[in-house]
Amino acid sequence: MKKKVDILFVCGAGLGSSFAAQMAAEDVLNAKGVQAKLDHVDISTVASMKPDIIITAQNFKT
């Protein structure tokens, strides 16, 4: 059994843009048949998490 890819969407408050990005990605992944675990959080929470992929705005790039 394949492991689901863990994708984390991050924005400043963890609500608006990260949730919108998560919903858009979910539509694309479902259309392509990709199984993934999606979640969205604020920038201060991401340090305690270990996702496979982090998607965020350019201003949070390190």
Quick structural summary:
Helix 1 links the parallel strand 1 (5-11) and strand 2 (36-42). Helices cover 27% and strands 29% of the residues. The chain has one helix spanning 16-32; strands at 5-11, 36-42, 53-56.
Q: Would you mind describing this structure in some detail?
A:
The protein has one helix at residues 16-32; strands spanning 5-11, 36-42, 53-56. Strand 1 (5-11), helix 1 and strand 2 (36-42) form a beta-alpha-beta unit. Helices cover 27% and strands 29% of the residues. By secondary structure, the chain is an alpha/beta fold. A three-stranded parallel sheet has the order 2-1-3, covered by helices on one side. The mean pLDDT is 87.
Task: Please estimate the helix content.
Answer: 25-40%
Strand content: 25-35%
Q: Count of DSSP helices?
A: 1
* Whole-number mean pLDDT: 87
Strand order of the largest sheet: 2-1-3
DSSP, total strands: 3
- Rg from Cα: 12 Å
N-to-C order of helices and strands: EHEE
Query: Structural class of the helix and strand makeup?
Result: alpha/beta
Largest sheet: 3 strands, parallel
Shape: globular
Secondary structure: elements and pairs:
Elements: E1 5-11, H1 16-32, E2 36-42, E3 53-56
Parallel strand pairs: 1-2, 1-3
